[in-house]
């Protein structure tokens, strides 16, 4: 039996350590650890609530717009204010751009190198001129001896299955994708000022007032992205997938899924969001359940906190207490969120499955055609695992980009009808409580706010990657990534490429995972490193 | 990077032995033990280990320069910026600070290219920031400045004055007290920046942000000084009165001096 530690995990956001026990060439057990602690909820205490949507964005620079929007929504819930229609749509656009940027970046720059052998691309025999140029560029780069981000990796590992020509094509698209993911961020900046750290989405709506030339500037740019997703990103997924179909069942995990829903509908009904709210449990797949914030608890028995009871975030009481790394007791800064005491996977696969099984028409069409294309018509359960996560992210990227164009048209139509409001003013009450529930590209995101004396008394976040990267709960049930790793074949423990594939399929972001914890106690923390 | 874990650490070791690199640091440095580790090592120790062989150290972003948001009161992990962290571990090396949240990538590329072309570090201000990017305030270069000078302001979010590009001072803009080339360099391939899209500046380029400007929607001059305790209110009150008077006089003066007069005549 071999036990290996991967620290740092790379091609993710933030600081993650993975430990796996390998026996008979397969992962027998796994532990995920968040290794950085900052304390956002502590920092927010006592501040002007209107600063929260700026400060919580700094939980992470990969999906800051999601935090901005969730924070603003928690205040809109607390202060009883609703954005006007255009405000709603502008925020959807700002959010949508971030999704498109994030998924393109993830597929090519975080995930692809697990499946694409860059060195093998040098053996390709391209006939097409631009591919020849890419190969020459790659050759010069490799011959310089300074391999940069490609250095000392797992090139030549037997788990790489693509032929050299396909590897070269993927490298060419990897380079193109650097520009495309940046272009998606540009779109967010048109309405939000900049990406990351958006500047125009406070509680009440948007502070960006659309203009005719501004909308024209937006529409041609989103078209370019839509075309690239349809003609490069999606075909790449469909071309590469057949070589890795043996991964279809790998990394299945618990197969429970949660989505709070994202991209607000005019009715503000979360079940009508473009990607609707809902929960799916393996025990009665494919039924879609109601997802309710009251059903959320956070367990801490395996996390560096005091406390014996799982608690709902609205009444969360936690004392951080670092006791050193012990895989049998406490081994991470991340708490274990549970819905109805079950571990839930969150992210694109969760959202697309909830949408598909809820009958959302676009999701239904996209997934049905994909299932047919891979010879599994009418069998969505084949998506449970690494390949399903990759496919879901690509399909969701297309779905969101296509919707973004329509939202632009909707704003123009509103303005034509004389509906130009983007912001609803409000007064901050002396006391108020609210919850904002939304989705970041990586999954379900919730902010709970408690205002007293017009200042923040208490602020809690339960964020996407905490759901995925959490440790065992009080019942000893593994977190989603830990469970997904069990059973994975590993050919060479010295080069655990297969472990990377499973972890990367969740698109983890650790800045979110360990943002804090806390509230009630003001105890000074003492830490000992064992 | 493609490699992870052991293979990633091997690359770092190799670089350290080779030396002569530009060391770019992103993120603040936790100084409470156990709060920030990579490969089992404290981030503070990693910083010490790799700053020695570097020819230049660049701290990118508000967190790496002066601690940023995670270092805001009460700074639970006792996070400090790179300059202060290096002092704590006894490393005496100049640091180029690219303060901003997030860092403007054009500033970073500009500094690196400046070094590659001219073989030297750019001229720095007293906060270690390159004067070429931090030498003027946002107010100095803002495209909405003529509106400020003429007393034309956005008074409510979502108002038509925003579409006309009027000044955001009354909505809390911290531009007059923030040194950064944002209006010139902008963000995301120069497609936009905060004020241009309708978001008042929150002063994220400044030492002491966010606490220095916390209460982002409070209109300047309610600016608190970081690090000075009892006398802060007194200093602030005097500075506030002077600034308030200055700004008020400036706007009123411009209006009276006849710039608006021209408009009125045209409109009649």
Description:
The complex is a heterodimer of chains A (530) and B (268). Chain A is 38% helix and 12% strand. Chain A is built from 14 helices and ten strands. Chain A has a three-stranded antiparallel beta sheet with strand order 1-2-3. In chain A, strand 9 and strand 10 form a beta hairpin. In chain B, 41% of the residues are buried. Chain B has 268 residues and is mainly alpha-helical. Chain B has helices spanning 5-18, 43-51, 62-66, 82-88, 105-118, 131-134, 138-141, 145-149, 160-163, 182-185, 194-197, 232-267, and strands at 21-26, 29-30, 37-38, 41-42, 54-60, 79-80, 95-98. Chain B has a three-stranded parallel beta sheet, sandwiched between helices. Chain B is built from twelve helices and seven strands.
Layout of strands and helices, then pairs:
The complex is a heterodimer of chains A (530) and B (268).
Chain A: E1 2-6, E2 16-23, E3 26-34, H1 40-44, H2 52-55, H3 64-79, H4 85-111, H5 129-143, H6 164-192, H7 212-240, E4 257-259, E5 278-280, E6 296-299, E7 336-339, H8 348-357, H9 361-373, H10 386-416, E8 431-440, E9 443-452, E10 455-462, H11 464-469, H12 480-485, H13 497-505, H14 510-513
Antiparallel strand pairs in A: 1-2, 2-3, 4-5, 6-7, 8-9, 9-10
Chain B: H1 5-18, E1 21-26, E2 29-30, E3 37-38, E4 41-42, H2 43-51, E5 54-60, H3 62-66, E6 79-80, H4 82-88, E7 95-98, H5 105-118, H6 131-134, H7 138-141, H8 145-149, H9 160-163, H10 182-185, H11 194-197, H12 232-267
Parallel strand pairs in B: 1-5, 5-7
Antiparallel strand pairs in B: 2-6, 3-4
């Amino acid at each position: 039996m071999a036990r290996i530690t991967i620290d740092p995990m790379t091609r993710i956001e933030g600081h993650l350590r993975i430990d796996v026990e390998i026996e008979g060439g397969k992962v027998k057990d796994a532990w995920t650890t968040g290794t950085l602690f900052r304390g956002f909820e502590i920092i927010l205490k006592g501040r002007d609530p209107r600063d929260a949507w700026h400060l919580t964005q700094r939980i992470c620079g990969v999906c800051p717009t999601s935090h901005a929007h969730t924070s603003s929504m928690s205040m809109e819930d607390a202060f009883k204010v609703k954005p006007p229609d255009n405000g709603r749509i502008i925020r959807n656009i700002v959010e949508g751009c971030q999704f498109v940027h994030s998924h393109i970046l993830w597929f090519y720059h975080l995930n692809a190198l697990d499946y694409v052998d860059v060195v093998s691309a040098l053996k390709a025999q391209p006939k097409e001129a631009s591919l020849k140029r890419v190969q020459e560029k790659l050759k010069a780069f490799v011959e310089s001896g300074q391999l940069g981000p490609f250095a000392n990796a797992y090139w030549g590992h037997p788990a790489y299955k693509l032929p050299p020509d396909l590897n070269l094509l993927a490298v060419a698209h990897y380079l193109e994708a650097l520009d495309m993911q940046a272009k998606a961020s540009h779109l967010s900046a048109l309405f939000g000022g900049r990406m990351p750290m958006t500047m125009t989405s406070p509680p009440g709506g948007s502070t960006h007032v659309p203009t005719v030339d501004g909308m024209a500037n937006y529409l041609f740019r989103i078209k370019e992205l839509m075309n690239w997703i349809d003609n490069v990103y999606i075909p790449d997924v469909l071309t590469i997938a057949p070589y890795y179909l043996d991964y279809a069942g790998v990394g299945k995990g618990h197969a429970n899924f949660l989505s709070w829903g994202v991209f607000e509908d005019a009715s503000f009904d979360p079940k009508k969001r473009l990607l609707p709210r809902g929960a799916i449990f393996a025990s009665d797949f494919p039924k879609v359940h109601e997802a309710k914030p009251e059903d959320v608890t956070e367990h801490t028995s395996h996390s560096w906190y005091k406390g014996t009871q799982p608690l709902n975030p609205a009444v969360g009481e936690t004392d951080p207490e670092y006791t050193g790394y012990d895989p049998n007791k406490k081994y991470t800064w991340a708490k274990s969120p549970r819905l109805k005491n079950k571990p839930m996977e969150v992210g694109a696969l969760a959202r697309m499955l909830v949408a598909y099984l809820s009958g959302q028409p676009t999701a239904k069409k996209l997934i049905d055609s994909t299932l047919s294309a891979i010879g599994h018509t009418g069998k969505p359960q084949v998506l449970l695992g690494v390949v399903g996560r990759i496919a879901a992210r690509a399909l969701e990227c297309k779905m969101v980009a296509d919707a973004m164009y329509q939202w632009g048209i909707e704003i123009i139509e509103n303005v034509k009808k004389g509906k130009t409001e983007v912001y609803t003013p409000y007064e901050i009450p002396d006391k108020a409580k609210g919850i904002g529930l939304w989705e970041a590209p990586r999954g379900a995101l919730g902010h709970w706010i408690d205002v007293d004396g017009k200042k923040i008394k208490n602020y809690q976040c339960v964020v996407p990657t905490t759901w995925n990267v959490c440790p065992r709960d009080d019942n000893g049930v593994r977190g989603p990534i830990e469970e997904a790793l069990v059973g994975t074949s590993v050919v060479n423990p010295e080069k655990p490429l297969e472990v990377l594939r499973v972890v990367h399929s969740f698109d983890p972001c650790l800045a979110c995972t360990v943002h804090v914890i806390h509230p009630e106690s003001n105890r000074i923390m003492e830490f000992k490193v064992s | 990077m493609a490699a992870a874990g052991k293979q990633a650490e091997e690359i770092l070791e190799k670089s350290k032995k080779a030396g002569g690199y530009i060391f770019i640091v992103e993120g603040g440095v936790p100084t409470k033990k156990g709060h920030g580790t990579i490969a089992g090592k404290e981030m503070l120790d990693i910083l010490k280990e790799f700053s020695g062989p570097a020819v230049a150290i660049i701290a990118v972003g508000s967190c790496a320069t002066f601690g940023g948001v995670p270092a805001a009161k009460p700074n639970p992990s006792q996070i400090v910026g790179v300059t202060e962290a290096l002092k704590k571990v006894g490393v005496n090396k100049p640091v180029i600070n690219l303060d901003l949240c997030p860092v403007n990538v054009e500033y970073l590329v500009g500094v690196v290219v400046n070094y590659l072309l001219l073989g030297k570090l750019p001229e720095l201000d007293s906060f270690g920031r390159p004067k070429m990017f931090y030498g003027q305030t946002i107010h100095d270069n803002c495209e909405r400045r003529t509106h400020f000078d003429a007393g034309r302001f956005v008074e409510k979010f979502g108002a038509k004055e925003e579409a006309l590009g009027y000044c955001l001072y009354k909505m809390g803009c911290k531009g007059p007290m923030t040194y950064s080339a944002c209006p010139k360099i902008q963000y995301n391939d120069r497609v936009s920046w905060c004020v241009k899209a309708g978001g008042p500046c929150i002063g994220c380029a400044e030492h002491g942000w966010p606490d220095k400007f916390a209460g982002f929607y409070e209109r300047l001059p309610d600016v608190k000084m970081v690090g000075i305790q009892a006398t802060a209110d007194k200093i602030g009150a005097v500075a506030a009165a002077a600034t308030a008077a200055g700004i008020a006089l400036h706007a009123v003066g411009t209006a009276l001096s006849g710039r608006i007069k021209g408009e009125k005549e045209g409109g009649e």
